[in-house]
Amino acid sequence: MAAITSLFIFFLGLGFCVLLFGRVCYEGDYDDYD
């Protein structure tokens, strides 16, 4: 059960990072985030 939880957290964090970096790259500059 712990392995499934670890995988879930791993993929959740991975997806969050992908969305975050994708947004930064799409905006072109981190200073334009806000």
Question: Care to give the gist of this entry?
Answer:
With 34 residues, this protein is mainly alpha-helical. The protein has one helix and no strands. The model has no long low-confidence stretch (mean pLDDT 81).
Name some characteristics of this structure:
mainly alpha, 1 helix
Radius of gyration: 14 Å
Helical fraction equals over 70%
- Average pLDDT for all residues: 81
Percent of residues in beta strands: under 5%
Question: What does this entry look like structurally?
Answer:
Helix content is 76%, strand content 0%. With 34 residues, it is mainly alpha-helical. The chain has one domain (2-32). The protein is rod-shaped and about 40 Å long. The chain starts with a helix and ends in a 7-residue tail after the last helix.
How is the topology of this model organized?
Layout: H1 2-27
